[in-house]
């Protein structure tokens, strides 16, 4: 057997240790069920796996460290569970395209080894209890299109290395404890979605952010100064700069901002 797909059912109970005998399996897809208990250590014997999709279940406990040895993995999606503990060392998972750990109870810091995942396009660790700084090594992820770290306890400033992420995409860092200024380079990353709301960011709004094409939320920060004149040519459908310390006149916003 190479593919086991039992998703979108009402399957309950736990994952048996015997899954480790499925050494030829490449896809293990049991998402959208009612599975409980822990992820068994025997999953580390499934060395042919390219896809582990266990999201939207009731799984608890920690991620087995041995998953870090499954070097063929392209998709590790275990979001919307009740998993806890720290994020394992993912540095050897160099084939990962998707890493989704969102909406769990993970704590600790984002490992520096995440910078080894240079082919990854989607990284989601949102809605957890992650603390510490955003690692500079995230700037190595030059193929990243989707980055979501919202609703954690991240501190420090937005790292300059994020300026290496040149692909048009999505970045959500809202509801953390980030400080410092909003970097000018964020407006040069071909982003269509940027949410930095509910942090403690200071300074002025970079004029380059008028380059965004769909969504910009800077609300609930400590930003000062005026809305940049470049926003007169803004063509974005969603703009939120509420609950900041912005002063001055409202610029002559383009009608396209409201269309």
Query: Low-confidence stretches at least 5 residues in length (pLDDT < 50)?
Result: none
Beta fraction of the residues? 25-35%
Radius of gyration: 20 Å
Any idea of the CATH class of the largest domain? Answer: Alpha Beta
CATH architecture of the largest domain: Alpha-Beta Horseshoe
What is the third-level CATH name, the topology of the largest domain? Leucine-rich repeat, LRR (right-handed beta-alpha superhelix)
Structural class: mainly beta
State the shape: elongated
Terminal residue distance: 51 Å
Put simply, the count of helices is: 0
Describe the main β-sheet briefly. 11 strands, parallel
Keywords: Cell membrane, Leucine-rich repeat, Membrane, Repeat, Signal
Membrane topology: Single-pass membrane protein
InterPro entries: Leu-rich_rpt, LRR_dom_sf, Plant_RL_S/T_kinase
GO cellular component, one term: plasma membrane
Structural descriptors:
single chain, about 260 residues, mainly beta, Leucine-rich repeat, LRR (right-handed beta-alpha superhelix), 2 domains, 11-stranded parallel β-sheet, 3-stranded parallel β-sheet, elongated, signal, repeat, Plant_RL_S/T_kinase
Q: How would you describe the overall organization of this protein?
A:
With 259 residues, this protein is mainly beta. It has two domains: 1-173, Leucine-rich repeat, LRR (right-handed beta-alpha superhelix), CATH 3.80.10.10; 179-259, Ribonuclease Inhibitor (Leucine-rich repeat, LRR (right-handed beta-alpha superhelix)). The protein has strands at residues 3-5, 12-14, 27-29, 34-36, 51-53, 60-61, 75-77, 82-86, 98-100, 105-107, 122-124, 131-133, 146-148, 153-156, 169-172, 177-178, 191-195, 202-203, 215-217, 222-223, 238-240. It has an eleven-stranded parallel beta sheet with strand order 1-3-5-7-9-11-13-15-17-19-21, with no helix packed on it. A three-stranded parallel beta sheet has the order 6-8-10, with no helix packed on it. The chain has a three-stranded parallel beta sheet with strand order 12-14-16, with no helix packed on it. The chain is elongated. It starts with a strand and ends in a 19-residue tail after the last strand. The mean pLDDT is 93.
